[in-house]
Every structure is written in structure tokens, then in C-alpha cells.
């Protein structure tokens, strides 16, 4: 998980999964890594995980990088199989949310020994967390979760094994109250 910097333009101070907007180069990375530009969101997810948390998944396994510029080369040497990072949820912001988003959530199995790190202005902290712990912290005011993150964490909290988590499909649920973005 990441705690966004208080200076971040979108959801400052919120606890989020690593990720971000598909950039101009992501379709090309998707072709290079997965053979299909339609996988641009998946390529974006891998790139953002490396850039924001310093964690890279390649076919031969996981590694930590210390320079965001290393991410593309580290993955490009041997990209992971699409099946190793299934999409578990997809959220599109309602029309009334000021900052629109189309967020896809991917799951991957990783060793606990990886230590996420942050560099730059996007996040002030990166760490591993149990979904239930984050949901309890949100309920008690210890952290702030945005609606999609909270609902994905609720779905993940119901999983008992890594295999259940990788097979999860968490639907978009509209909020009961108006949300502000």
C-alpha cells in the first residue's frame, strides 16, 4: 500500500494501491511485454508498481529496484505471463466525480521478503498490509481510503488463500452517498 503525499493532486494523504494513469508509452510497453497494445493498463500497473513502490515482477521472479528508470529494463528482460497478474476488479468513476478515473486492479503473488520503498513526490510511505487491518484503520480514522480501494480491500479480506485472491473478481459497487474526488 502507499500513503499518497499531501502534495499529490489526486487523493492527497489517502492510502491507495500503487498505480496511476496509462501514459503514452504504456501501449508500446504492452506490445513489448505482452504482445498486445490492448494490455496497456496491465503494462501501466507493472510500470507504476516499479516506479511507486520499487517492486518489479519479471518472468523469473520479483526484484526491488532503486531507480524508477530501471523498471522498464527489468521487466523488459523477461516480462511476466498475463496469467500471473489477473485483473480482479475494474472501477470507472461516476460522472459527478471531479477527477475521473478508469481503474483496473491486478493481483500478484509476491514473497513477504520484498521491501517496498518510495522515492519522489507521489507517496510518503509504502508497506505491506492486511486488508482487514486497513479497513479497521479506515473505520477508526487511522487512515483514509477512497471508495474503490475500500471495496477492493473488502473483497480481498474475504479471501483465505493466495489462490482465492488470484481468482477473486470484485465488482464495482456504487456508493450509498455522494463521494468527493
pLDDT < 50 stretches: none
Largest sheet: 3 strands, antiparallel
Query: What is the CATH architecture term?
Result: Alpha-Beta Complex
- Major sheet strand order: 2-1-7
- How many strand segments? 7
CATH class designation:
Alpha Beta
N-to-C SSE series? EEHHEEHEEEHHH
Which class of secondary structure composition applies to the elements? alpha+beta
Distance between the termini: 19 Å
The number of distinct helices, counting runs of at least 4 residues, comes to 6
Summarize the SSE layout with pairings.
Elements: E1 2-4, E2 15-16, H1 26-34, H2 40-53, E3 55-58, E4 61-64, H3 70-77, E5 87-92, E6 102-106, E7 123-126, H4 131-140, H5 147-157, H6 162-167
Antiparallel strand pairs: 1-2, 1-7, 3-4, 5-6
Helix pairs in contact: 1-2, 2-3, 4-5
Amino acid at each position: 500500500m502507499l500513503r499518497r503525499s499531501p502534495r499529490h493532486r489526486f487523493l492527497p494523504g489517502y492510502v491507495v494501491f500503487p498505480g496511476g494513469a496509462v501514459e503514452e508509452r504504456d501501449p508500446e510497453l504492452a506490445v513489448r511485454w505482452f504482445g498486445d497494445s490492448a494490455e496497456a493498463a496491465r503494462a501501466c500497473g507493472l510500470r507504476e508498481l516499479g516506479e511507486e513502490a520499487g517492486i518489479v515482477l519479471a518472468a523469473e521472479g520479483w526484484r526491488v529496484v532503486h531507480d524508477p528508470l530501471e523498471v522498464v529494463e527489468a521487466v523488459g528482460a523477461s516480462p511476466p505471463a498475463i496469467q500471473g497478474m489477473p485483473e480482479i476488479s475494474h472501477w470507472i468513476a461516476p460522472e459527478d466525480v471531479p477527477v475521473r478515473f478508469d481503474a483496473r486492479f491486478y493481483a500478484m503473488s509476491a514473497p513477504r521478503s520484498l521491501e517496498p520503498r518510495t522515492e519522489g513526490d507521489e507517496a510518503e510511505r509504502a508497506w505491506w498490509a492486511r486488508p482487514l487491518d486497513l479497513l479497521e484503520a479506515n473505520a477508526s480514522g487511522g487512515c483514509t481510503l477512497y471508495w474503490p480501494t475500500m471495496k477492493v480491500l473488502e473483497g480481498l479480506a474475504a479471501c483465505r488463500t493466495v489462490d482465492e485472491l488470484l481468482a477473486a473478481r470484485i465488482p464495482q459497487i456504487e456508493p450509498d452517498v455522494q463521494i468527493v474526488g
